[in-house]
Amino acid sequence: MKNKILICVGTSGLSAGANEVADNFQLELKKHNLFNNYEIIKTGDKGLFVDVIVEIIDSKKTTYINVKPDDVIKIIDSHIINNELYKKRLADENYTNFFKDQERIVLKNCGEIDPEQIDSYLERDGYQAIQKAFKMSRDKILEEVTDSGLKGRGGGGFLTGMKWGFGKKAESNTKYIICNADEGDPGAFMDRSVLESDPHAVLEGMIIAGYTIGANNGYIYCRAEYPLAIKRLNIAITQAKEKGFLGENILGTNFSFNLKIKAGAGAFVCGEETALIASIEGRRGRPKPRPPFPAIKGLWGNPTIINNVETLANIKHIILNGAKWFASKGTKNSTGTKVFALAGKIKNTGLVEVPMGTTIKELVFGPGGGMINKRKKFKAVQLGGPSGGCLPESLIDTPIDFESINKTGAIMGSGGMIVMDESTCMVDMAKYFLKFTVAESCGKCVPCRVGLKRMLETLEAITDGKGTQEHIEFLKEMSPTIKETSLCGLGQTAPNPVLTTLKYFPEEYEEHITEKKCRAKVCESLLEFEVIPDKCTKCGLCFRACPTDALEWKKGEVAYINRDKCIKCKACFEACNFNAIK
Amino acid sequence: MTEVISKTKSLIIKHEKEQSALIPLLQNVQTEYGYVPKESIDLIADELSIFPVEIYGVLTFYSQFHLNPPGKHTIRVCQGTACHVMGGKVILDNFSNKLGIEDGETTEDGLFSLERVACLGACGMAPVIAIDEKFYGKVQLNEIDGILNKYRETNEK
Predict the structure, then answer these.
(1) pLDDT-based confidence at B125, cuts 50/70/90?
(2) How far is CA B119 from CA A333, A390, B79, B128, B140, in A?
(3) What average pLDDT score do residues B126-137 get?
(4) DSSP strand pairing (A217-222 vs A176-181)
(5) Nearest CA of chain B to the CA of A264: how many Å?
(6) pLDDT averaged over chain A?
(7) Cβ contacts (< 8 Å) between B144 and chain A: which residues?
(8) Count of CB atoms within 10 A of residue A528's CB?
(9) Which residues 6+ apart lie within 8 Å of A360 measured at CB?
(10) What SS3 state is found at A24?
(11) 3 state SS for chain B
């Protein structure tokens, strides 16, 4: 067998020059006449952003990180020709630690296979699950999925088996399976990575879902912002058809299943099931009251099951390994693993998959590697995007499972996890999310359309230094009203970021209102930067950091900030090593 | 028959003549022109038997669609949570200042359009921007001039 050279060619890999790296490997292998011994495999994201990642599998597996196109010649020369590791780009301890405590089920193939070659997937149990499923009765599959305890990974946390049960029971000649790949939460990229790195796993899940409930057609509704994912899905569908895993009479059975991709057009609310259906039908993505639920009356009035990408990617593993195996992972009520997109002020940004029940602390300080800037303390973690909440340090030992997270007022959400340090303002965070939901509200129901707007105005007043105590009372009164009276999930959860920050960080609201102060130095209206002459070491770091020439400095002189030119970007404040700018 | 009409016609043929084809069709038109021209809208309305007002409804509902021609290069600045925490707003403000345009506008020379996007899904590279299809990660304020100049220079050549 040939030795392998795996190169990560995901969205982040490409921006770091992965294609150039791959081309250089091609050239060099050719030059040294090594094509018969080595095979280049372009994989999807591995999960950690230290691009470009190159893994060479010969007698053992060696990982190189941060590889630049120029490094290739040296890697070939050292590793392949002279059998000596190229130490400069060798994966460090940090890299090993990132993967050490993970349990990768959904991400099993990410960074290991070529997503554009079905054979690469087939080598790793690909499409084994549908072959096993076709030999099982539909009731038995449903039983397995239900018993596994798998809950929807898109945020709702509804039991997948139960949802499928509704779809199976519904009587109709036409039924649909939809994969919800409209990953709209800002700060989430789990689904993008899975689709880019292992698209067939999602297709396999959809085929099994279709077979179980008796649906012959499926749609993948994918964000238009993910062009690479759409491209790879299209390739995967074509290849699966060629091999007979999709289309008419799959693998000689009487079951037929066809798949189409629908690209979204940039509307967060389309992640909501009924809005997503409206969008596929070619209309504006506005939600409808439920019931009737899509499982009974969905796409063009037919029973429709909508599952998230990660949920579907779990299915094949449940079929292959059984419900018991899956249920043995995680906690009693939240089984299996969960993929998180770790980002923000954290050392290792990337995709992490851990068993449910892992605590926030274990995640942030384990695979996450702790804070990015050792001088700045952990302050909060944001879970669940615009529908979720910010949790403070005192709750850092909370286990991540559906029940525990709900109790705190945040939600599990789809898996976005943003870590914040002292330089993040919690009032600004609440404002940020509300701005998002106001912009994305479809405008159909009053509480969401008008109520959120009033809340945003209130928060703007507070961050502008015009806040009063009445504003806080107003927010506290408005939030539950909007939650209870909005039509869909967007409005029902939109006040959560405000409620959780009010609950866990009341002192920051208080300071903005009474002292007109933003401790994190974020709220522009409350900021005036100046140099403290006594502390200034005249080093000029601030001068070099300033993007607008607002900093005036000459060698040997104390710096001065021209406020007319200052845009309050904090670049000088961050650059100063001596706390000489306040 | 104008070029837009004949082109739109050739795109319509590729789709079923039903409402569900509307969004993919509009996406095709936009891929062709960078925006959806008025002539296309009228023609699609006729061919798919949909009122033009409904098409406008769809076009203005989804943030992806544009009704005006964009610049030669589209700068998309991510405003996702991770980018926000890492200073994405200041990056957007800076592009806006340096180009003299607001989000959604195009520079007078037609070279750049500026767009804020909710999330590019590349949080590990925060703060991140994308110019056309190319991603730039961990963008620093003092890199912005250099990035813009690169596109200006290629344009002059």
Answers:
(1) confident
(2) 32, 19, 6, 9, 18
(3) 90
(4) parallel
(5) 8
(6) 94
(7) 547
(8) 10
(9) A381, A391, A395, A396, A397, A398, A400
(10) helix
(11) CCHHHHHHHHHHHCCCCCHHHHHHHHHHHHHHHCCCCHHHHHHHHHHHCCCHHHHHHHHHHCCCCCCCCCCCEEEEEECCHHHHHCCHHHHHHHHHHHHCCCCCCECCCCCEEEEEECCCCCHHHCCCEEECCEEECCCCHHHHHHHHHHHHHHHHC
What distance in Å separates the CA atoms of residue A423 and residue A521, rounded to the nearest whole number? Answer: 7
Determine which helix (DSSP H) or strand (DSSP E) holds A167, and give its type and residue range.
helix A160-169
- Contact flag A187-B82 (C-beta cutoff 8 Å): yes
- pLDDT tens string A283-312: 999 999 999 999 999 999 999 999 999 999
What are the structure tokens assigned to B120, written together? 């590019």
For A509, B77, B84, B108, B133, the CA distances from B96, given in Å and listed in that order, are: 30, 10, 16, 13, 20
Q: Give the model confidence (pLDDT) of A3-42 as tens digits.
A: 999 999 988 888 888 999 999 999 999 999 998 899 999 9
pTM here? 0.93
Length of chain A: 582
- A263 DSSP β-pair partners: A222
Integer Cα distance of A305 and A273 in angstroms: 9
> In 3D, which of A30, A137, A18, A28 has the Cα closest to residue A77?
A28
- Rounded-to-integer distance, Cα B10 and Cα A290, Å: 40
**CA atoms of A96 and A83, how far apart (whole Å):** 22
Rounded to the nearest angstrom, the minimum Cα separation between A35 and chain B is: 31
Report the pLDDT value the prediction gives residue A374, as an integer from 0 to 100: 86
Q: Provide the shortest C-alpha distance from residue A253 to chain B (in Å).
A: 30
- Tell me phi and psi for residue A108, to 5 degrees: -50, -45
User: CATH top-level class for B73-156?
Assistant: alpha beta
The CATH number of the domain covering residues in B3-61: 1.10.10
**ω into A533 cis (within 30 of 0):** no
- Using alpha carbons, select from A119, A106, A576, A85 the residue that is nearest to residue A375: A576
Q: What's the ipTM?
A: 0.91
DSSP for A232-269 reads HHHHHHHHHHHTTSSBSSGGGSS--BEEEEEE--S-GG
pLDDT in tens, A32-75: 999 889 999 999 989 998 889 999 999 999 999 999 999 999 99
Ranges of each domain in chain B: 3-61, 73-156
**CA A121/CA A179 separation, integer angstroms:** 20
B40's tokens: 């296309």
The per-residue pLDDT for B1 is: 62
Give the span between the Cα atoms of B10 and B3, in whole angstroms: 11
Do the Cβ atoms of B141 and A570 come within 8 Å?
Answer: no
Which residues of chain B neighbour A432 with C-beta distances below 8 Å? 81, 84
The answer to whether the CB of A185 falls within 8 A of the CB of A385 is: yes
Please state, in angstroms and rounded to a whole number, the distance separating the CA atoms of residues A469 and A436: 25
Cα(A431)–Cα(A433) distance, rounded to whole angstroms? 6
Neighbours of A380 (CB within 10 A): 24
Residue among A189, A281, A420 whose CB faces B19 most closely:
A281
Q: CB–CB of A186 and B133 under 8 A?
A: no
CA A279 to chain CA centroid, nearest Å: 22
Neighbouring-strand partners of residue A57: A4, A61
